[in-house]
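Sync notes, pocket subgroup
Present: LS, DG
LS reminded everyone that the earlier model was apo-only. Rerun requested with zinc ion included. Inputs:
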Amino acid sequence: MSRYKCQICHEYTWAARHVCPPTWECYEADDPEERTTIYARDAEQAAEKYAEQTDPENEYNIMEASTRDNEESEIVVLADDKEERFLVSAEIVYQYSARLKDD
Ligand SMILES: [Zn+2]
């Protein structure tokens, strides 16, 4: 059995019968015209995924703002008929890697 990436929601899964999580419409509070549909298990995860996915150039706008000014980005997630608002911040995580030294 191998892990595969769902072509619809782009989630990695082991499940033989994968079911995509529900979709959420998300946008930044100061830019309500730029809406994106996100697959996520709940509104909170949708806000986090939105923050990741709207940074495709790896400019890390949200992370830069949060580390520099302790600022959070306000992300709006449309859930049923209401809006849920999340304050999203980011942090830097160090990742170590090792490689065998050639003699
Ligand atoms: Zn899926």
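DG: Residues 21-88 form one domain.
LS: Residues 38 and 49 are 7 Å apart (CA to CA).
Action: DG to write up.
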